[in-house]
Design a protein that fits this description.
mainly alpha, 2 domains, 8 helices, 76% helix, extended
């Protein structure tokens, strides 16, 4: 659908979809709050709209996320620093956002649902975010090196070759049988 579009047009389209979804979700959120209290039926609908506007499973949020990813896919960033910082990002996210890890980290660092009482707390959170990024980057690097070591072992190569051969034989269509 977008193959004939220029890169700049794709960026405008994806950015427009992203911002449109953000505005639409915000309007749903605000209107659901303002319409609440009219009667019980309206309250039920507005409560569901309010919950939907805050959920990650919201179709609007999903479309917004897809537009966001597609927008960044159109960018070509030629900075070695940014590209090297971006490589382990998914692994960092998966490590630190795991419910078992996140709970322990937040409790240990005393940042679990605390209210921001002063500006030093903001600096503290910023330092903690950098520390979590560095520690999780190290864990992700170790994981990548371990998986690379396993990938290059002779037994892994043999298993992979057997799988590729099995799959290619499975996908091969014999014309004589037709």
């Amino acid at each position: 659908m977008f193959k004939r579009c220029s890169k700049q047009l794709k960026q405008v389209i994806f950015l427009t979809i992203f911002l449109g979804c953000a505005i639409l979700n915000y309007l749903i959120f605000v209107s659901s709050q303002s319409l609440n209290g009219i009667n019980s039926l309206v309250n039920e609908v507005t409560n569901n709209l309010w919950l939907m506007s805050r959920a990650y499973s919201n179709p609007i949020i999903m479309l917004q996320t897809v537009a966001f990813v597609l927008f960044f896919e159109t960018l070509q960033i030629h900075s070695k620093i940014i590209n090297n910082l971006a490589k382990p990002t998914l692994g960092i996210y998966l490590i630190h956002d795991n419910p078992l890890v996140r709970g322990v980290i937040y409790q240990w660092l005393k940042i679990d649902n605390g209210l921001v009482s002063n500006y030093s707390f903001i600096v503290y959170i910023f330092i903690i975010a950098i520390a979590i990024y560095i520690i999780c980057s190290l864990i992700e690097w170790i994981r990548q090196q371990l998986f690379l070591w396993i990938y290059n072992r002779k037994i892994s190569i043999n298993i992979r070759n057997k799988y590729y051969n099995w799959f290619s034989n499975l996908c091969r269509i014999d014309i004589r049988e037709s």
